[in-house]
Amino acid sequence: MASLTISYTGLRTRDDSGLIATGEARPLLSWHPVGARAYTVEAAADAAFDEVIASLTTERTFDVPLPGPALASREVRWWRVRAVGEEEWSEPCRVEAALLEAGDWTARPVTVPAAPDAVPLLRREFALPQGILSARLYVTALGLHQTWINGALVSEDLLEPGWTEYRDRLLYATYDVTGLLAEGRNAIGAAVADGWYRGPLGWFGRSAWYGDRTALLAQLEVETVDGCVVVGTDETWRGGTGAVASAGLYAGCTTDLRNEPRGWREPGFDDRDWAAATTLDLPAGLEHRSMPAVRAVRTWPVEVVADGRLRLDTGQNLAGYLRVTATGPAGAEITVRHAEVLDDQGELHTAPLRSAASVDRYTLDGGRAVLEPVFTFHGFRYAEITADPEVRIDGVEAVAISSDLRRTGRFSCSDERVNRLYDNVIWSQMDNFVSIPTDCPQRDERLGWTGDIQVFAPTACRNSDARSFLRNWLRDLAIAQYPDGKMPHVVPDILGDLGDWGSGSTGWGDAAVGVPWALYEAYGDLETLRDQYASMRAWVDWGASRLDADRVWSAGFHFGDWLDPGAPSGDPARAAVPTPFTATAYLSHSARLLARIAGLLGRAEDADHYGALGDAIADAAWKHLGNKAIETQTGCAMALRFRIAPDDERHAVGERLAALVRARGGRIGTGFLGTPLILHALTETGHHEEAYLLLMNERCPGWLHQVGQGATTVWERWDAIGEDGRIHGGDMDGGGPMLSFNHYAYGAVADWLYATVAGLSPAAPGWSAVSFAPVPGGGLTWASAEMDTPIGRAAIRWETGDGSFSAEVEVPPGATATVTLPPGDWSSLRLNGRTLQIAPVLDLGPGVHRIALSSSRS
Description:
It comes from Glycomyces terrestris. By secondary structure, the protein is of the alpha+beta class.
């Protein structure tokens, strides 16, 4: 009997870099299920599968190992999949290994002397014979690089190779450059800037955190009919300087087009006056990039308004830069300044930038030029262009950059204010996912704060395929962790020399456990749990060693419920909820999560130990601090969500939380740690009206207050702009202003928008089971959400009318689902056109289903 035609989709490896090669010797494969009980995966040395290497049969469709032995460096293998019992295979997929061993590198990093701040240029010419078959460029830098072959950029990737714990780990990329090469003379060239490696980081004004010399490491391997030609960085390379006089992540870029050597990227350029390069030792920890690169992800034209100066509003707070097209004589100058907001005089409000100048400067070489900065980015919505009188600005574009993660989640509803809030969350994630998860994209900080991503990771994993991005960061987190288990506040760690202030805060260090757990829930990612297990356990053990005799964590510095709206303006750590409670509760939560993880990994003894530890710490938190904690919104939410409150007291705590919300008229009273918990806590205790009261509140503090003030991203402070329109001073005791209009921590609200307003959540890790549990409220008449899950599309759209509710839900292939009926006095239920008895929960299989409810009064 003929096989049915099956469409196999979602075929991919765990490597999400988009590069031609992978650094994983044993790639993990995934595809969307097609309803089969088992699948056969076959691997071969050729696309026709004439030379099959190995095959395996599996019931899994996620993180299945590539059949056969581990890949060797440069090896190409093909794989395909089919359901057991079927004849038709998927389309073949190709996987190629990068350079997997240090011994594969014959090139060495090269550096040249350059003027202070100048961006050096490096080049080398070489000859190729006839018969070019393929070419790979393996490239990275100590600093940031752009690389060209024969005048063409090898990639549109930005800020390569990104930011890692450079002393232990440096990423490189593999590019297919076959089409850029020619028989005969060729040239390869690169510009190398300070970036995170040598440029200033943080608010200290300190530079050269990792080294005092930038360098390029490049190895070009060209396969020809006569063999392999290798061109690597060595002492035969030469270096000079060009148009870019300086480029700093915080300062901006200064470019004088008159100084650009004509044709330096192409063959035939006379570089005899350039300096000879010197080589450095091969850096430790070379590792192939497995996550998406930073790229220009959105571009749009911006109108320039001339009122004596050239001003513009991009309409969106973003991380990126302006692309300016201008015409003018040689020597004419153009300056571009940036800010997130305007002050009450309509001027750029730059005080929150602190020492980050965020200024791009250009000098024209005569004629028309397209100007854009390199090796930098700015956090801004507004800009001002100052130009010499003889310059004509022909056009301006806004360019938003981000690590180019694939969007997976979408939400919308009947209230445009809530939609704007959701969009603000998406933009804040994009703007702060630039190589690492940062706190803000504009001031002299832009650091990988552990607390911010700890609270936001579940939301990030709904919005985007964040798995490889966060896995990459977690590798650095484990490297940066102290030998005794203490966690730095930021990763990569540049605060370690600040003593106790620079490390060891609960809610922040708990990213060691919380972020891997978020990846497991979103993607079923057991591999990350295994990889990070030692780091998780070390953090929990260190926390346990800090407990008092009564098992309360009262010692040391903690950020606590950072920036709760009741904290003193200059001391955001003095939250309403007692910090010993949040510290103790968080350690209990992490210990209990660690117990669950240990059980998943087959570590039964650890599971028992950490489960008992977590329970004992929770009991201590409740006994010694519970009464005072539940006088605050965060304390109640944490007691409920972290199961600190005993079961027989949960109802009373839920009632207390609802009363606190009502007493404030829906104004929120939580900071970084409490905000992700409070709406979920209200929902799970049945206080839906109070949850919507918080969401829909337009007064300060509240999410819709920000929207009402024109926010296009999520703010760091609830009152960054007050109800009277005044900008917060950002004052910090003993320091400069701390004010950002682009932080994603409070954007964790989007997790609740997906799960409760729309009603879409995973009911099992990796979405193998789906929960549809919408709770209409807040005057909303419809809401929808969709998710491109690891096994396919899950979606819901519901509408309400006068005594009626209808929904269309989609369950991915191979998944099961439950639908929890929304609260209401329902008298009639129809499922896919059939009338059913009313039941609080419906069980569904894959496919699209339609639900209609009505009450006796409809």
